[in-house]
Amino acid sequence: MCFGSMSLFSVEQLSEMALGLEASRHPFVWVMQWIPKGYEERIKDVGMLIKGWAPQLVILNHDAVVGFVTHCGWNSSLEGISSGLPMVT
Q1: 1, 4, 41, 86: which could join 30 in a potential S-S bond, CB 3.0 to 4.6 Å?
Q2: Tens digits of residue pLDDT in 11-38
Q3: For this UniProt entry, which residues form the secretion signal (predicted)?
Q4: Sign of CA dihedral 79, 24, 13, 88
Q5: Cα–Cα–Cα angle for 46, 82, 71, nearest 5°?
């Protein structure tokens, strides 16, 4: 899940996304700057958080990745399409 470096979500919105991912119990990788207190410990068995820049194309081409939640920026769109992944935009 990546929303780009220019996204501006409120703490409440980020908290809801974090809680939704946690409740899903599905494996995920989320590139984000802000992390709710205690979140990393709670999701350590199912999720991976990357703070800051991430090698998005490498991640998207990994065999374990089956979908991509994206903000639809030009690079993310091209990388998601070239990786052959279904995208939630």
Answers
A1: 1
A2: 999 999 999 999 999 999 988 888 888 9
A3: none
A4: positive
A5: 60
